[in-house]
Amino acid sequence: MRGGLKGSIAVLMAALVCAATAPVAAAVEAPQEQEGVFLELRPRKQTRVIVSVNVTLGVAVVDTEMGSLDGARRHRPRGEVEYAVRISKAPLAGHLDLKVPGVLSIDGELAPSGSEDGVEFNGSLRFTGKGGYLSFDATHATGGNGSLACEAGCLGPHPNLFAYIENDVPFVDSNHNTQVLHSELKSHGRVGVFQAAHWLDDPRSNFTARVLEWLPGNVAAIRTIEVAGAAGSEFKSSSKAEHPRWATVRPPGPFSGRATYRKVATIRSPASGKLTGSLAVDIFGVKVRLAGARAKALLGNFNPGF
Q1: d(CA 208, CA 171)
Q2: Distance between CA atoms of residues 42 and 56, nearest Å
């Protein structure tokens, strides 16, 4: 069961895959002829925006982090919105011209900074993240030479854009978790992923939601929110067995509603079931339902008896 539970954590996003052309042009060869550059901005407290451009791969990624960079804390959720888009493979030549539809526009000059492999940007940068959760303008940013990597592993010569921004759902660790509830629901062109977990030797509950979708302009987007240290009763399992029969969840904000898991197991999949109810989440301007008759769910205990 443990191997099956771990494998199920991979998000079912194949249904979201579609042909994406390069709607954006970003000129240029990066300083020192590296294959890419990144810029880091801190528009407000506990907010970090990293723009990574790789002309060799023809991909740009915008990563917006909000909340403590050390992870979610009690009463202090942590969230992240990541975007990926195809760009021109033309060399940078010291100039960055990048547009991510509905998200970001950059036009300015790149030059080496005083530090080794450092990069300095001067020009116009406007961020208008989809959903209205963050908006700012900047004329200066610093960063460095660098390259993108496929977070989920590149399969084949032309990986899907989600491969550059998808990674493991937080909290799942067979050495530190007991009960883990994981569900996935596809609706209205989105895949909503929900997870509830208990840490070993800690009665409190931890919750994560993640939404994957294609935005206009062939922009891949993933939004994630984490809530840690909630009351243990907000995720209640029927037993400490390896395959509990039912569980209930009622996470705090930005979640709303509640849901019930009931096992609908088979010999090949003893942890599978359904997650039904009114559970939803508002992730940075996008409200997504997380439970329903079509939600596929798994509930298991990595450390039975605890």
Answers
A1: 8
A2: 27
Please list, in sequence order, all residues whose beta carbon lies within 8 angstroms of the beta carbon of residue 80, skipping any fewer than 6 positions away.
63, 64, 65, 66, 222, 223, 224
Residues 272-282: tens digit of each pLDDT: 899 999 999 99
287 with 213: CB under 8 angstroms?
A: no
pLDDT in tens, 92-108: 888 999 999 999 999 99
